[in-house]
Amino acid sequence: MPDQKWVSDFRSTLLMQTKNTVVSNEPRSFALFKNIGDVLSFVMPAEQLRFAVRTAAVLVVAFGVAFGGSITTVSAALNSIPGDLLYPLKKMTEGAQVRFAADDAAKAELHVEFAGRRVQEVAKINEVEDSGNTEKIAVAVEGFKQEMDTVNQYMDQSQPEVAVQIAKMVDAKNGEHEQILTKVAQTTADPEAKDIVQQAKVVAEDTGVKAVEVMVVTHTAASTTVTTADVKNSVESKIVEIEKRVEQLTENMSATSTPGKAAEDAKTSIDEARSLSSSGDFASALTKIKESTELVRTVTALTAVVVGQVNTSTPAIISASSTLQIAPRTTQSSGVQNTSTPMLIQSLEENVGENSSTPRIVQP
Amino acid sequence: MNKLLKDKILLFRLSIRKDPEAFGKVYDEYMNRIYRFIYFKVSREEEAQDLASETFLKAWQHIQEGKSVKSISSFLYSIARNLVIDHYRKKMLTIETGEADAAGMLKSEAEQSTKMESKQEYSVLLAAMSKLKEEYKEVVQLRYLDELSIGEIADVLGKSKGAIRVTLHRASKNLRGICDNKQ
Fold first, then answer.
1. Which of A121, A144, A191, B5 would be a feasible disulfide site paired with A311, CB 3.0-4.6 Å?
2. For chain A, how far is it from start to end, CA to CA, in angstroms?
3. What ipTM goes with this model?
């Protein structure tokens, strides 16, 4: 037998959901009519029913009975955030929606939408200061990562036409996700929450780059599925996004500082990507996009170190999909300067004294 | 009030009125059975809970969309069965019954059962069932544990009544053979 407490708890949430679902928008008079017809259809042969309905309709019109208005309720669960009572129901409903979806493209579209919901949840949590926000943000971000992970799997495993469809959906939404996450990272006071949101941004960026990769690879294999115009648009949009990120990071930054130098390298890489895209070499442009993405992360990490904003109890930015890794820090109580400097930063600091224009990236 | 009439009234309230209270009654009536049906296939409590929850959420969604429901049992079991199939397709696993877990769970039901001649017979039946091939296991479970009619089983599995009768007959024969070999 199932756990009866679970049975009882789920019953409560299920019935709350059923009571809150959208009810008909029909004017009451028509709804009443329809209900009478439906009841009668259970007990009356069709011919008799038609006669009865016609008669009733005439009577209704004759007496001029009419009720206006509509009753609409919206599921409270849809607006819930982690920590709310209805949040588990929201997730369960999403799961059910995915199962309803007709095919992989439809399922992936739902996952992209749900990823957007997780991001909205992060923003909503951040709107109100509360001691429990970090934990709630962590739950929402974990959900976001799972959705993006699933979307990535769909891009990997689907047929090219479907993968491209999914890549375009990701392209359309990713910029928005990154903007919202950036705003939250900038406005949240808690360094741990900032770190968690930064991890979400990394995942969003990686998925965005993957979407571009799908377009480029498919175009290379079969240009009829992805036209040159499509892939160029995808590549150049990504270049613009990365460029904006660099600009935001380097506002008021000295070009001679360590992060400043990394930013210059990122800009060089971006320019190269643009040039390659213009000449139609999208595969090489993609390589430069990946390179510049990593360099921007370097800039972000270095900037965080410089202003002492990094939480010493959590690992610094780690990109799951890149070859670039930063070793987890050992904890320090002050959080201002850490004596266990990540490998990459050591390498970059070594480069400061050299005349190399490109930082030497330490490969694990 | 007999079960058939009760179901008819609930069905009316659900299909026509979309009555949440009626849905609550359906839940009370069927949740344990649907859970057991799913658990027998997935053998993990959390997965069974998730899938059972989704069954009822999906059922409510169907009702909201005005889809036709002829029989509450068939309706719910169909949804549950399809969810389990999707679940395994997603995980790319073959459907296996964790014999120890499922038998253990059902054993506790056997101890509460008053329907079989003896609890021991019930336990023997369950152990034998777990040795049947999936197709047979399913019809036997639906018929003898979940007490669905042939028509309802046909609806759930998307087959004709005749095909279900034949499968049930073969499954019962197999089951008898397994039980006889054990003795």
1. A191
2. 51
3. 0.73
